[in-house]
Specification:
By secondary structure, the protein is α/β, with parallel strands linked by helices. The protein is built from 9 helices and 15 strands. It is 32% helix and 27% strand.
Length: 284
């Protein structure tokens, strides 16, 4: 399959009354995208942090305490997205969830296949907040995921601002890069957006950007969320002149949809007006 529909989330962080309320919210979001014909759904970085609101205020108000408490709902989180993926026969990048490993906490993006099987990509480059204030460390190496839609990869938020990460994934065959993000300033949003567009240009690939939006004053981790979801492309023949296939209205909770045709990627890489993907090695 080379042509498919993708849905990128502009996802609001809510204060939840129960896990059942969270399940219902996710079910609504997934059903809406699936009913609109999306075969690949991308949620944003740290969208799972709204689950911290299920705990007492001395837990959700503490950066360290919420990380520990969230481990108690990780299993239910994974089971929920596995069910949703299998029920609707869609692929889901379930944003990110802070996971405790033997090496410490890692910011992990789980990728669910249509049969409910799950893989993951960990964030590789930590922001100052994650590193200095939150104690979340660097994850494992770049990976790619083989699907019926093609070979996909994930670059979590800040990772999209570093060319060598996406380049490695492109060299492993990725034609679509998923970027779940969480940014709390307009400048932060634009850093990620510019990174996404640069990675699409350099690697002549699609980049799908998902973002948290809105305020969550109760959360010390995701209290302010600024961004817009989008799908970016190479800037070449057969693609939009500005490399923007779709972009959402900033700050509005919504899905942003676009049609992706991965058959265009090998074509532009071999016969584009320019050959950024090929010519990378000439400048390395």
């Amino acid at each position: 399959m080379t042509v498919f529909r993708v849905a990128a989330a502009q996802y609001p962080i809510d204060f939840l009354g129960s896990f059942a309320e969270y399940e219902a919210k996710i079910a609504r979001w997934v059903a809406e995208a699936a009913e609109a014909g999306a075969q690949l759904l991308v949620f944003p970085e740290y969208f799972s942090m709204e689950l911290a609101s299920l705990f007492p205020d001395d837990v959700y108000g503490s950066l360290s305490a919420q990380l520990e408490a969230l481990q108690g709902v990780l299993g239910r989180f994974l089971a929920l997205f596995a069910r949703q993926a299998a029920q609707h026969k869609v692929y889901i990048c379930a944003g990110t969830f802070p996971v405790r490993t033997e090496a410490g906490f890692r910011n992990r993006a789980h990728f669910f296949h249509v049969d409910g099987r799950v893989e993951y990509q960990e964030k590789l480059t930590m922001t100052r907040f994650e590193d200095e204030s939150w104690g979340i460390g660097r994850g494992a190496e770049p990976r790619v995921f083989d699907t019926a839609l093609g070979r996909l990869a994930i670059a979590v938020c800040y990772d999209s601002e570093f060319p060598l990460i996406a380049r490695r994934q492109a060299e492993l065959g990725a034609e679509v890069l998923l970027v779940p993000s969480c940014t709390d300033t307009v400048a932060g949003y634009w850093r990620v957006r510019i990174g996404c567009q640069a990675r699409a240009l350099e690697n002549q690939c699609y980049v799908v950007h998902a973002s948290t939006v809105g305020a969550a004053a109760w959360s010390p981790a995701v209290d302010v969320n600024v961004g817009a979801a989008a799908v970016y492309t190479p800037v070449d023949r057969g693609f939009p002149d500005d490399g923007v296939l779709a972009v959402g209205a900033a700050g509005a909770p919504q899905w942003v949809y676009a049609e992706i045709d991965t058959a265009k990627i090998p074509a532009v890489r071999t016969n584009g007006q320019v050959l950024n993907f090929r010519d990378w090695s000439r400048n390395a």
